[in-house]
Design a protein that fits this description.
With about 190 residues, the protein is α+β, with helices and mostly antiparallel strands. It has two domains: about 5-75, no CATH class; about 80-185, Alpha-D-Glucose-1,6-Bisphosphate, Chain A, domain 4, CATH 3.30.530.20. It is built from seven helices and eight strands. Strands 3-4-8-7-6-5 form a six-stranded antiparallel β-sheet, with helices on one face. Helix 2 packs across helix 4 (about 55-70), helix 3 (about 40-50) crosses helix 4 (about 55-70) and helix 6 (about 105-110) crosses helix 7 (about 165-185). The longest helix is centred in the last third of the chain and has 22 residues, at about 165-185. The radius of gyration is 20 Å and the shape is elongated.
Length: about 190
């Protein structure tokens, strides 16, 4: 059995205790006693909600933490694969950031020749693109104003196949966002 630590699912034992009444060590013991290692994710979360009165959001967080602690789920792994994240703040207004993401020709300048297609866009707020052959993975861009002349992008690339691909895509997105900054910052 893996040793417990202070954080699982990115959440500290103190934070879990403050919201659920138990820290990681206690939850791991409780769920081991319930034979949760043999249960699917949804069943563990339901058990926490029904039997231990844990709110829905915290049921999910405790379940993810338990799965990571017991080797049932890797870091960055979700139900539909792995997820890579990146973010960057720019010295550029939100409208310029959005335009560079929404315009196909400009987007190609900072994404390179990666196969992708825009599937949804909400002006000055978010975009979604299908990525790769047959749009096998998905990328969400969430955009935020940080004042009149500053903006931020958060990228979430989902449905990746492995932790190794997560690391590869994190490196890719760091470089792509650097190129995006050169295009929109003056």
């Amino acid at each position: 059995m893996p040793k417990t630590k202070e954080k699982y699912g990115g959440i500290s034992s103190d934070a879990v205790r403050a919201k659920t009444g138990k820290g990681w060590e206690e939850w791991l013991q409780v769920l081991d006693g319930e034979h949760a290692q043999k249960m699917p994710h949804k069943q563990i979360a339901q058990l926490l909600s029904d039997e231990y009165n844990v709110t829905d959001w915290w049921s999910q967080m405790v379940t993810v933490g338990y799965e990571q602690a017991r080797g049932l789920r890797a870091v960055h792994q979700k139900a539909n694969g792995y997820s890579a994240n990146a973010s960057k703040t720019f010295n550029a207004p939100l409208r310029d950031l959005y335009a560079a993401c929404a315009d196909e020709a400009t987007r190609a300048k900072w994404l390179g020749n990666k196969k992708h297609s825009l599937s949804k866009a909400t002006p000055n707020k978010s975009l979604r693109i299908g990525w790769g052959k047959d749009n096998a993975t998905r990328v969400d861009f969430n955009l935020y104003a940080k004042g009149e002349t500053k903006s931020m992008i958060q990228v979430q690339h989902e449905k990746l196949e492995s932790a190794a691909e997560v690391e590869q895509m994190k490196t890719y997105w760091k470089g792509a966002l650097g190129k995006l900054g050169k295009l929109i910052e003056t």
